[in-house]
C-alpha cells in the first residue's frame, strides 16, 4: 500500500467511501504484510473520520432545513 494516512483526503464523500471499501477488501484478503496492513489501517481510519465528518455536516444542514425553513405543502381537497 503506497498511500499513507497523511496523503490528501478525497474531496467527495463518495470517493472517500470507495477508497475505504477498497482498503477493507484488501485487508480482508489477508495478503498484506504487517507493515502494509498497518498503513492501510491508518489510511482507513483517516478516511473514516473524513466520512463521519461529512455525514455530520450533512446531518446539520438537514436539521437546519427542517427547523422551520421547510414546511409541508397543503393537501388539496379533491
Summarize the structure.
This protein has 78 residues and is mostly helical. It contains 2 helices and no strands. It has one domain: Helix Hairpins.
Q: How many strands, which pairing sense, and closed or not: the largest β-sheet?
A: none
Mean pLDDT: 87
Q: Determine the strand fraction and express it as a percent band.
A: under 5%
Second rung of CATH, namely the architecture: Orthogonal Bundle
- Measure the end-to-end span: 63 Å
SS class: mainly alpha
* Radius of gyration of CA atoms, rounded to a whole number: 19 Å
What are the segments in which pLDDT stays under 50 over at least 5 consecutive residues? Answer: none
- How many domain modules? 1
CATH topology: Helix Hairpins
Query: How many β-strands, per DSSP?
Result: 0
Query: Which H/E pattern describes the elements?
Result: HH
CATH superfamily: Exonuclease VII, small subunit
What is the helix tally?
2
Overall description:
This protein is mostly helical and 78 residues long. It has a single domain (13-69), classed as Helix Hairpins, CATH 1.10.287.1040. It is built from 2 helices and no strands. It has helices at 13-28, 34-69. It is elongated. The N and C termini lie far apart (63 Å). The mean pLDDT is 87.
Amino acid at each position: 500500500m503506497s498511500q499513507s494516512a497523511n496523503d490528501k483526503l478525497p474531496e467527495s464523500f463518495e470517493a472517500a467511501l470507495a477508497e475505504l471499501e477498497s482498503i477493507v477488501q484488501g485487508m480482508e484478503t489477508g495478503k498484506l504484510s504487517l507493515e502494509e496492513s498497518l498503513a492501510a489501517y491508518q489510511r482507513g481510519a483517516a478516511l473514516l473520520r473524513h466520512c463521519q465528518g461529512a455525514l455530520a455536516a450533512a446531518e446539520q444542514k438537514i436539521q437546519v432545513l427542517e427547523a422551520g425553513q421547510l414546511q409541508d405543502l397543503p393537501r388539496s381537497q379533491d
